Amino acid sequence: MNIPTPRPDTAARSWAHDAIALLEQEATRSADTHLLRLDFPGFPDIAFYFKDEASHPTGSLKHRLARSLYLYALCNGRLQPGQTVVDASSGSTAISEAWFARLLGLPFIAVMPACTAPQKILDVQALGGQCDLVEDPSQVHARAAQHAAEGACHLDQFGLAVQATDWRGNNNIAESILGQLRREPQPVPRWIVCGAGTGGTSATIGRYLRYRRLDTLLCVAEPAGSGYVHGWRARDRNAVASRPTLIEGIGRPRVEPGFLFEVVDAVAEVDDAASIAAALLLEDQLGTRYGGSSGTNFVACLQLATAMRARGEAGSIVTLLCDRGKRYQQTLFDSAWRSAHGLDIAPWQHALGNALATGTFTPPDGSS
Questions:
Q1: pLDDT by residue (tens digit) across 30-65?
Q2: CA distance 319 to 38
Q3: 173-180 and 200-211 are packed helices; what angle lies between their axes, rounded to 10 degrees?
Q4: Rounded to 5 degrees, what are φ and ψ at 323?
Q5: Residue after which a domain boundary falls, among 137, 162, 187
Q6: Do residues 219 and 266 make contact, with C-beta atoms less than 8 angstroms apart?
Q7: Can you list the alpha helix ranges (DSSP code H) found in the chain?
Q8: Range(s) of the domain holding residue 218
Q9: Could you say which of 114, 132, 162 is where a domain stops?
Q10: What digits encode the pLDDT tens for the residues 76-122?
Q11: Number of domains the chain contains
């Protein structure tokens, strides 16, 4: 009988153990993000909660995902000592991944569309990462795969986000939200609203709501005409966007593998100008500027709240504050940049302010 002879790479295994310990220590040091509550005169029976994911050490919702992707790569034996790490990202995920690469002492390459907000590129570089800028955004996946073929470990947020995140618990974002609501007047929200980049966050929340046997509904807030909008409505995984968006991180041109149609109860379409106006309105309410996708989420919340109020429903709505507005000072929050891209936010600012006062959200005349 031949007895298998083990050939463990003890040095690599020891390094992986140390790396996992570093990630666990970081998670313990990073206290959970805040859940902020706002009440508006027009919606006296509806409480609005905002999960401030921008308060993570790397400034965005993607901090959780980046940690999970590194753990997944380590526990699957894909990430080795000294190996270069690569991923395709429009910015926030890349910043978080660069931060964790520095923590583990690994080189990092972010494959990014050349049109990515300049501040995001600078943030990756400040953390020691290298930015490989691609003129055609549709080619970022192929470029990341090319780096992987040359020996880099591809974290592959779009392909692996759903597998890497523990949707049953382990302090995922859904578990965190519901735990923080436990002592609130409406501990089980009527709606949770999030955007979709990889689709991992919506998949995690939708699965966890079912796992906990809750009646909470999940709405994905998306830029108008995105691939997810058309894909979800037609249940077509080959759907593509009918229009581009200037809101980074969401509004994918195609349906990514991690987006699960079956766990999403509604998709809200939001005009880019409305998203920017809503982000500025959030700054007025919270004293902190958040990015465009946070504005997209807020608009969807007001759409849902208007429908709830019309039906005489009470309850709560929870959404996410995804990243800080500082990353978009040269783009979304620059009036000259908006003008150059044909964005007029003034009508939306009026409509959104009116919604908070009256409880009815009516888009401006002529809006798409």
A1: 878 999 999 999 999 999 999 999 999 999 999 999
A2: 11
A3: 50
A4: -160, 170
A5: 162
A6: yes
A7: 10-29, 62-75, 92-104, 118-126, 140-149, 157-164, 173-180, 200-211, 227-234, 272-286, 292-310, 335-340, 346-358
A8: 30-56+170-358
A9: 162
A10: 999 999 999 999 998 899 999 999 999 999 999 999 999 888 899 99
A11: 2
Q: How many residues in total does the chain contain?
A: 368
Q: By the 8 A CB rule, do 93 and 87 touch?
A: yes
Alpha-carbon distance of 270 to 251, in angstroms, equals 10
DSSP structure class, residue 90:
S
The CATH number covering residue 98 comes to 3.40.50.1100
Same domain as 325, residue 211: yes
Question: CA 349, CA 278: separation in Å to the nearest integer?
Answer: 7
Tens of pLDDT, residue by residue over 169-198, are 666 899 999 999 999 999 999 999 999 998
Q: How far apart are CA 46 and CA 315, in angstroms?
A: 5
Which among 255, 171, 259, 250 is positioned nearest to 208, based on CA atoms?
Answer: 171
339-350 mean pLDDT:
97
Please give the backbone phi and psi of residue 168, each rounded to the nearest 5 degrees, phi first: -80, -15
Strand order in 191-194's β-sheet?
35-38, 46-52, 315-321, 191-194, 217-223, 266-270
pTM strictly above 0.85: yes
Q: Phi first, then psi: what are they for 87, rounded to 5°?
A: -155, 155
Residue 195, beta-bridge partner list: none
Q: Please give the Cα distance from 172 to 160 (Å, whole number).
A: 16
Tell me the C-alpha to C-alpha distance, in Å, between residue 89 and each of 11, 221, 258.
31, 20, 15
Q: Which two tokens stand for residue 163?
A: 């597998």
Nearest-angstrom CA–CA distance, 235 and 319: 24
